[in-house]
Amino acid sequence: MPGLATRLLTPADMDEAVRLLHAGEVVAFPTETVYGLGANALRVEAVSRIYAAKGRPSDNPLIVHAHHRSQIHQIAREWHSDADRLMNAFWPGPLTLVLPKQAVVPYAVSGGLDTVAVRIPNHPVALRLLAESGLFLAAPSANVSGRPSPTRAEHVWQDLYGRIAAVLDGGPCGCGVESSVVDCTETPFRLLRPGGVTLEALQACVPSLLDGSVAVLPDEVPRSPGMKYQHYSPTADVMVILHDPDLQLLRAKVERAQRAGQRVGAMVVSEHRSLVPAGALVLDMGPRDDLPRIAQSLFHLLREADARRLDAVFVEGLPETALGRTVMNRLRKASGGKIVDAETMQGGDDR
Ligand code: TXA
Ligand code: MG
Question: What's the CA-to-centroid distance between 30 and ligand 2, angstroms?
Answer without folding.
Answer: 14
